[in-house]
Design goal:
single chain; alpha/beta; seven-stranded mixed β-sheet; 10 strands; 30% helix; binds S-adenosylmethionine; Methyltransf_Superfamily; S-adenosylmethionine-dependent methyltransferase activity; Methyltransf_11; SAM-dependent_MTases_sf; Methyltransferase type 11
Length: 262
């Protein structure tokens, strides 16, 4: 595998990430499934739990879309709160894990395989949409996802989503001391790309600054109503990739945007 910062198209990104998540899904669920819980809504590696945070407000009786739902843990929790939820994800293998959990728990979450840049739902069909690190950190065109979410939300509907905090792009993705020294430009939007030995992209993430996110949200016709930077809680020692107590106590690791469709 070769790691680089280089341009990559929208189609290459989707192709690479679909295959990557299909290949990584088993390990991902093995490593993080217990922390996420079969029916639990964890917003981020900091462990912010929707059961306490209530960033979505009262969901009972609401029709909710979970974007980039993975194995559907968040959607299953919302269903338990009385919402009617549909999940969409690019990866068939992630959705098979959702089905596995359905069969084990008896709580069925309807899911659809699709790309968040082209949501397969009709206009104004949801009251709420949410995403915990689903799709938005990975897609080439985050504006397209935001426009699609706006389209499928009813007027007055809300979208809350978490992504890696943009400041993290200025630091090495290392949970240890090396990850504390900024060594690259925060303003460099060149995507992070992993390639096979013959140069074919196998994984991609796209960087947006905080200002870029605000601009994309506004351009999509949404109103930004809140921005949360969860603090690392005392006693939380779990490391998730580059997210660790060492770094989390010093710099933010997650940004959660709360948006409204007017
Ligand atoms: C970090 S996981 C988050 C899933 C879940 N919220 C969780 O915490 O496990 C990211 C998910 O986004 C999905 N994803 C990536 N790109 C996507 C796209 N373009 N459209 C829809 N889902 C996408 C991946 O397949 C993966 O399941």
């Amino acid at each position: 595998m070769r790691v680089m910062r280089r341009p990559i198209t929208r189609a290459e990104t989707a192709r690479a990430n679909r295959a990557w998540w299909d290949g990584a899904a088993d390990d991902y669920q093995r490593e993080h499934g217990e922390f996420l819980r079969d029916a639990g809504f964890i917003w981020c590696p900091e462990g912010l739990d929707e059961a306490e945070a209530r960033l979505l407000g009262d969901v009972a009786g609401r029709r909710v879309l979970e974007v980039g739902c993975g194995a559907g843990q968040c959607g299953r929790w919302l269903t338990g709160q009385g919402a009617t939820v549909v999940g969409v994800d690019l990866s068939y293998r992630q959705l098979q894990h959702s089905r596995r959990i359905d069969l084990a728990t008896g709580a069925r979450l309807p899911v659809v395989q699709g790309d968040a840049e082209f949501l397969p739902f009709r206009d104004e069909s949801f009251d709420l949409a949410c995403s915990a690190y689903g799709a938005l950190p990975f897609v080439a065109d985050a504006g397209a996802v935001l426009r699609e979410v706006r389209r499928v939300l009813k007027p007055g509907g809300r979208f809350v989503f978490s992504v890696s905090h943009p400041i993290r792009w200025a630091f090495p993705d290392d949970p240890g001391p090396r990850g504390l020294t900024a060594d690259r430009s925060y303003f460099d939007r060149t995507p992070y790309v992993e390639c096979s030995a013959d140069g074919v992209p196998t994984y991609a993430e796209h960087h947006r600054t905080m200002g870029d996110w605000v601009g994309l949200i506004v351009s999509a016709g949404l109103v930004l109503t809140g921005l949360i930077e969860p603090e690392w809680p005392d006693g939380h020692e779990r490391i998730w990739g580059g997210w660790s107590p060492l770094r989390g106590r010093l710099i933010p690791g997650t940004a959660i945007f709360q948006c409204l469709r007017p």
